Amino acid sequence: MKNLKPLFLIAVVALFSSCNSVRVASDYDQSADFTNYKTFAFFKPGIDKAEISDLDKKRILRAIENEMLAKGFVKSEDPSMLVSIFTTAQQRVDVYNNYGWGWGSWGPWGPWGGGFGNTVSRTTEGTLYIDLIDASKKELVWQGQGTGYLARDVERKQERISEIVGEIMQEYPPKQMASN
Prior knowledge:
With 180 residues, the chain is α/β, with parallel strands linked by helices.
């Protein structure tokens, strides 16, 4: 039975580390010349449509602005690129069957065996889309998306949002364009 403790600890660590990961993807217009984009502004009509709280919008926009500035962009009243966001969220319910091996029962198998029942876990998984739009053509030139679990704790929200935005923005500029 002692050999099972390390396996259980590995499973718990894997479960908690998977909750922190962000799955990212991006797509872009291959005809766009990304070296021409030096300035940005937020696209208010698009941002207003995002169905999240105004506080979370502020957190997301603050994180995006920090990332854009770190990449050398300048915020401008006459931008070459507009930034918009879109979000989706879904509730995820996981049911874990504790049949056979569990913590609870002191039976003939000791403290490990005989644990019966289900554990239900509910989490919210969100997807953030960041759209970069050519300001003169009003055409989407790059889109990044990140999917991950959302923080419930108010103190952790900005940290988690910054983490998600940072992971998404690592995809910009497109890898094929980064070497030019």
